[in-house]
Amino acid sequence: MKEKDLILLADDDPSLRQVLNVLLEEEGFSVIQAADGVECLRLAYEQHPDLVLLDIMMPNKDGREVCRRLREISDVPIIMLTCLPSEKEKVERLSEGADDYVTKPFHNDELVARIQTVLRRTRRHADPTVRVYDDGHLRIDLDARQVRVAGAPVALSPKEWRILEYFVRHKNRAITRHTLLRHAWGEGYEQDFNYLKVFISHLRRKLSDPARHPRYIHTERDLGYRFETHD
Fold this sequence. Notes:
Elements: E1 6-10, H1 14-26, E2 30-34, H2 37-47, E3 51-55, H3 63-73, E4 78-82, H4 87-95, E5 100-103, H5 108-124, E6 132-134, E7 138-141, E8 146-149, E9 152-154, H6 158-169, E10 174-176, H7 177-185, H8 193-206, E11 217-220, E12 224-227
Parallel strand pairs: 1-2, 1-3, 3-4, 4-5
Antiparallel strand pairs: 6-7, 7-8, 8-9, 10-12, 11-12
């Protein structure tokens, strides 16, 4: 029998936690609960959940800080639960390492579908094949998930890593924005070009690759991007 996926549900509203606990268990998930940010981090360290549902507004440590802390130690998928639906808020949460967000109030079917999509995407992207790109300046080890620029380690968010990984596996080829969005975020995000633009900008900065005179990430006008190699 397939082992159930374990979801860590972090929200300071006990009524909402109880409703979601019942819903998720009916959908075949196992659930553990946290009432604040500190408890969420403790349970994440101890229980190694398959996915974290993380409310933003929580006592002790809010969801923003918890998300950043989790990203320092883990690639566990994170879906943010937010009452703040502005585009700026969404971009900031995704930039900090969240895999997705759901705006309250939400439909149960939408939440379950988002969870299933994120879990499928995470597993599909797992690849044990060892591949290294190294041109003497930039080194990308896809198996170790490590990046170095001029010998110095570079920390990437999960989204930045997925984009860079796709670039390396499809080097020297024009890749559409739709394809990159679908790869990094999943189905339904193919038109969110602003999100992609933000992450490409972050990636260029971390790789010391200025947009005006790029060495690696080139913009293909009206199409997408191309990762040019120099090995």
